[in-house]
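Rather than argue in generalities, we have chosen a single entry, letters for residues, whole numbers for local backbone shapes, without further comment.
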Amino acid sequence: MKDYEILDKTFQSVFPILNCTGNWEKHANKEMDALVTIIFPIGEFHFDALLKKEVRENTIRNIQNLNDTYPNFLLVAYRIYPKYRQLLQEMRINYLEASGNAFIQKNGVYILIDKFTPLKDETKDTARAFTKTGLRVFFQLLIDDKNLETNQRDLAHQAGVALGNVPLVLNNLKEAGLLVKTYTNGYRWVNKEEAIATWISGYRNTLKPSLYQGRYRLPKDTPWMEIQLPTSKTKWGGEPGGDILTNYLRPEHLTLFTELNKPEFIKATRMMPDKNGEVEVYETFWEKDSEIEKCAPPLLVYADLMINGDKRSLETANMIYEKYLGEL
């Protein structure tokens, strides 16, 4: 993305949130990029703007020097990962990010928006961590922080992927600003909540569609909770999983994960394929058995409820997050 496209993209994202307008022109000074005017109801603010595609450690020093030189300094960036946004705030450096995040302290006005996930360009979208294989590894890292320190061969086994994928995924997550190295040569999350949100996005768009096995109807006069699940890795997810975990949601749409092939599944559950059936069946993609009887891992249940997006699902998802994911 070209520098001035970054500026336009950021204006499109930030201005509606701030209820303001603005404009820009090229800066006369070569070390700066643009003269930016932001027009609020209370008046106009003028900034000397530096444009960056991405903020990294090696760019912070130059940004700090320019901030010290220009009293009206403003950083406009396509992507600023959370740890750098926090650093910029601590350094009192004004910035706008193309995702919609913003930090401005000027003339008695204080603005802080810090809730949007950094945008990813095409290169990042195709990175190994966000492929179907990578998302399986990513999932294992999220459901058990011990996996951030575990042997990579064990992690590959848990995710059901080839060993060579694991270091590539770890490096991609590090490059994305989600993981950092520890002194023990393991990793830790920069922001676990953001990492979960990022995984859910990849799961919804890439992994989940690849797992779909089809629709099935329940045996006649058999409620879903009375179905005998034939294996330890045949588990209810989505709304049934939400009901198991909270006893709050009464399922209308049924989701089931299984590692069985179609003939085995039909024989074991007595469910029959039906394009209008009540049950959507997906392939189980984790190796380690969930500790909760009949239920997929809470993170997966949470993800499907968030993807559903209706009020009842979101309420249940919040309950699951507080009870099961807050301490992940």
Remarks:
- The CA atoms of residues 107 and 204 lie 43 Å apart.
- The domain at 122-190 is CATH 1.10.10 (Arc Repressor Mutant, subunit A).
- Residues 192-211 form the longest helix (20 residues).
- The chain is about 40% helix and 20% strand.
